[in-house]
Write a structure and sequence with these properties.
Elements (H helix, E strand, L loop, with lengths): L32 E2 L19 E7 L5 E7 L7 E8 H17 L5 H15 L12 E6 L24 H4 L1 E5 L17 E7 L15 E2 L2 E2 H12 L8 E5 L5 H10 L1 E8 L1 E3 L9 E3 L5 H4 E3 L2 H7 L2 E9 L2 E2 L8 H9 L2 E7 L5 H16 L4 H14 L2 E3 L8 E3 L4 H4 L2 E5 L2 H4 L1
Parallel strand pairs: 2-5, 5-6, 6-20, 7-10, 7-11, 11-15, 12-16, 15-17
Antiparallel strand pairs: 1-4, 2-3, 3-4, 8-9, 12-13, 13-14, 17-20, 18-19
Helix pairs in contact: 1-2, 4-9, 7-8, 9-10
Length: 425
């Protein structure tokens, strides 16, 4: 099996910082200064969009110096590197606070989230606001603290959007990782029909309790199991055969058996996934959080790719990934699934309660079934949570309940990764 990984110095998108230097007119924005760099011919092709409606923004937040922003227009113009008015050290506490407030969820935190979003929007987008005015799609790459930033929750500068809305309300966002560009050269056996594979919840033991007793066992709630199962089941909206592995069936052995037996075009993982910044081999899918050694699936690229054969350009969804505040984002998982053949990855920056996630993914898969590109499909699903209350049906004889999911916790932590700016568009 060939991995399709991009070799050499550009294996990480945000590692590139050089470009030709042009003067850039900045109107109504914070100061930014052109930065010396390499010739524009050194810019990797995966950063270059070929459509005027797409622009690439690459943020290099290396420690000890101002953040460098590389702006790559999609209209055939030359890239520009700017030195922003903030360093990685200055941005890190803002990113950490925005994440912390998003995870708190109460409405009381929303005012501070908006103020942080305004500040980050002015710093990160203000200097190129005029150039982005007619660009509806942004292809993004960032390292350091910005790799953990929910970009959808920053606020568009007033010079870009007179209403100062969340960025996800005005732009379609997509993240670049060249590991997703190659795909998997292994073809599924002839005659196999592609399927959607859904994995949900931890391994659990049926509770030996009488009816009416507590519905939990060892801290693993049956209600949680049902909610994760419901979330993963939204993949049926794609209208193609679905293979489900829930509860006790969600074991590594049965996962490998399923991927060897079917041509997997969509893989939805409603299970815990964690990143260990100190040891990449400990970054893993945790099919049972309490049984790490037996139920963990390490996501080092080589090991995952050697066992997981996805259809070329498959979509992988990681709804329970928790990137923490480590400055590496979902990168280890994106690269691992890219080596296994995925062409797109949807990953969370933090786990979200399954009730709202179920609505988001139902919208995502319905949009995909209708032919909407992945980034636009996710943005529409996020915008629905932001714009209108969710309605939960409580069964016959009971009134439905409306639930406000407009807080950034519910929608801003999801990202789409593609292999290039062109794929993002």
């Amino acid at each position: 099996m060939t991995t399709g990984r991009t070799p050499g110095r550009w294996s990480s998108a945000a590692s590139w910082t050089g470009a030709a230097i042009l003067s850039l007119s900045v109107s109504g924005a914070l100061p930014a200064h052109p930065q010396a760099g390499e010739d524009a011919t050194s810019l990797p092709s995966f950063f270059r969009p070929n459509r005027p409606e797409v622009a690439t923004l690459v943020y290099d937040a290396s420690p000890g110096r101002p953040v460098a922003l590389t702006f790559v227009p999609g209209s055939g113009g030359d890239p520009v590197v700017l030195s922003l008015n903030a360093s990685a050290g200055e941005l890190h506490p803002l990113v950490a606070e925005l994440r912390e407030l998003s995870l708190l969820r109460p409405p009381a935190s929303l005012g501070r989230i908006v103020r942080l979003g305004d500040e980050l929007g002015d710093v990160l987008l203000g200097p190129i606001a005029e150039q982005l005015r007619n660009v509806p799609h942004l292809a993004l790459s960032a390292d350091g603290p910005l790799s953990d930033l929910p970009f959808g929750a920053i606020r568009a500068p007033r010079s870009l959007d007179s209403q100062g809305r969340f960025l996800i309300e005005t732009r379609t966002l997509c993240w670049i990782d060249p590991a997703l560009a190659g795909g998997n050269d292994d073809n599924p056996p002839a005659g196999q029909r592609p399927v959607a594979l859904a994995i949900a919840d931890a391994v659990y033991r049926p509770p030996a309790r009488p009816l009416g007793a507590s519905m939990s066992d060892g801290g693993i709630s049956w209600r949680l199991h049902a909610a994760r199962r419901n979330q993963a089941s939204t993949i049926s909206a794609l209208g193609m055969p679905v293979v489900s592995r829930f509860g006790q069936a969600a074991s590594p052995a049965l996962l490998w058996e399923s991927t060897e037996s079917y041509a997997v075009r969509f893989l939805h993982l409603a299970a815990e996934a964690r990143i260990d910044p100190g040891n990449a081999d400990r970054s893993a899918l945790l099919l049972s959080p309490e049984e790490y050694d037996d139920q963990a699936i390490p996501v080092t690229a080589g090991q995952l790719a050697s066992r997981l054969a996805l259809e070329r350009e498959a979509l992988v969804v990681l709804s329970g990934l928790d990137t923490g505040d480590h400055g590496i984002g979902p990168g280890p998982f994106v690269r691992a699934f890219g080596a296994a053949g995925a062409g797109s990855v949807v990953a969370s920056l933090w786990p979200v309660v399954d009730e709202s996630a179920t609505h988001l993914f139902a919208s995502l898969y319905s949009n995909l079934a209708g032919g909407t590109p992945t980034a636009a499909a996710l943005r529409d699903a996020q915008h629905r949570l932001l714009a209108e209350p969710l309605r939960f049906e409580q069964g016959e004889g009971r009134e439905p309940v409306d639930f406000d999911a407009s807080h950034p916790y519910y929608w801003s932590g999801y990202r789409v990764y593609r292999g290039s700016a062109e794929a993002c568009g």
